[in-house]
Amino acid sequence: LYEACVQDPSWQMYEIPRFHKKFTGRAPLSMREDFCGTGKIASEWVKKSPKHTAVGLDLDPEPIRYGEKNHLASLLPSVRSRVKLKRQNVLKPTREKFDVIGAHNFSFYTFHERCDLFRYAKSAYQSINSKGTFFLEMVGGPGFVEAGETLEKNKVEGVGKVGYVWEQHQHDPITKVNDYSIHFKLPNR
User: Model's pTM, two decimal places?
Assistant: First the structure.
C-alpha cells in the first residue's frame, strides 16, 4: 500500500542522473539507496542498463524480505545479480564506493541529534566516489508544522480504491521534531 500510494521511483530514475551529470559531467552507474525498505528504487535503478548496479541498506529485515520476494524476484537473473539489499546501518560506511547515495522520502529525519546526522553524512562521504553525489530528499515548510490530516484516493492493483491518510501530529517548535502517521482505508473498511 505504501509503495502504491506514496513511493514513485520515476522521480529518482529521471532526476538523480540529471542532477548528477550536471554536477559531475558524467552519468552515474552505481547507486546506494539508504533506508531502502523494500528496495524498490534500487530495483528500478538496475533496469536502466546492463552497467547500472545498486545496493540498498536498511535495518529492518521484514521490508528487505518483502523486496527480495516482490521486486528482486521479478527481475531477470542478469538484472537481479546487479542489485543487493543488505541489512546494515547507514551510519557504517560501505567498502564499496558509489556514484550516487540517496536517502528518500525524508527517511534521514530519523536522526534527531545533529551529531547523528553528521555521522550519517560522514559515513556517506566515506562510501561515495570522488565525483559522487549525495541526495537527501527533504520535506518542510508551513504546511508541515500544523496538526491535521489529508486524504487521497488511489487505485491499488489487487485491492481496489484505497484511501491514503497522511496525519500530522503536534509539531515541537523547540526541537523541530514532528510526528507523522500514515493510515490506509481499504475498500472493505
Answer: 0.90
